[in-house]
N-acetyltransferase domain-containing protein (Corynebacterium deserti GIMN1.010), 190 residues
Amino acid sequence: MGDVSPTIRRLSIPEFTINTPVLVDIYIEAMEYDKAIRDTRVEVWRRNSQNPGFTAVAALMDDQVVGIAYGFNGSPNHWWQHQLRRGLRQQGGPTEEEIQLIQNYFEVAEVHVQPGFQGHGIGRKMMHELLKDNASGHAILSTPEVDGEANPAFSLYRSLGFTDFLRHFKFDGDQRDFAVLITPLPLGER
């Protein structure tokens, strides 16, 4: 493919909402999910756009969206934070430090690049734009566990300074193991 130089730009909430079906299609393809989840995920993503601190970025190549990343401020009222607290309890916590960490974080909800465009730095560029100027103390995300962390997602997150927060965690409704990773903000590079 040679040099891949996408345009990375922030999406307004109306742009995100209008384009959510296309963005969810990228997610389904990148994660190899069943297309039957499309309508449900479109609704969830649109609801997420109403969360405080919502930020979305897209990667465009020749006016085609090839990547999406979005997130929002963590909140004790969100399902995800309830899941994190459950995971910390299962692992003997939460400690005072862990409680502090989940008081002020930005949840990186989704980061996806179309398979044909992966491996060219698009995810890295989206992460930098997504987390640029973010006032939260930390960014937290989850990614499916893989043996030896041998996939591009883990390589990207580790290179951006993400460390373990929870490992081999099962979110309610998903039987796969996930790693929950955290990094201080502003975003660094290893």
